[in-house]
Amino acid sequence: MTAPLLEVRGLEVDFLQYERGLRRRAVPALTGMDLTARAGEVVALVGASGAGKSLLAHAVLGLLPPNAVERGTVAVDGEPLSPEQRRRLAGHGTTLLPQSASFLDPLSRIGRQVRRTARLAGHADPRRAAEQALAERGLGREVLRRYPHELSGGMARRVLVAMAVLTRPRLLLADEPTTGLPTDLVRTTLREFRVLADAGAAVVLVTHELRAALDVADRVVIVRDGRTVDVADPAGFTGDGAALAHPYTRALWQALPGNGFRVPEVR
Prior knowledge:
alpha/beta
């Protein structure tokens, strides 16, 4: 088995807050995250809203706010790195596909932003690469002339996916990349991540689309309340989930539409 491209061990994050009288308190956000992603893998990171999935993705790239206190280990290519070192990797083999369209520059046309990404990624013809990347996601050339506020949420998300793929990442952290997309584009987008992994990248797919992610994921990491609770084989997500070892993983599966919307009591 190949060595992990990304290895997160025991990651804890607190946010420091000040109350009246300048009293400082630490608010736990992540309390023990573990995650491993190897080249050639799609690892789905799944959990309820507020479980810490997106926070983990930002922590990996050293993008936490100044009041964050981090403990644990984040290693890339086997080397433990500080938040500052990880921040320098952003855009240089490591790419975050953000959840929010606010990551697009509101004062710059889409064409300029996508062409700049293509140019920085070393594409020989950035203009053609930009047009092709958008066309492959159902976006016409007219989108190149628009500003981010002129796009729907789904269109903006497709632009972000195009820009992420153009960077040819070794490690892609995709944060809820399919929210707001129609079903056919959800499948198409997830297949893109599978293709990236098959070409040698490591893809961490942060998603609440558990059922769709099963079609492309090699492993499913389940998180709850800021902590990794299970690593499951996608093949175990069948029927009533009897093959799933952890009760919380079974609860997530059974609560999905089509599985009865059952919400068992899990401690």
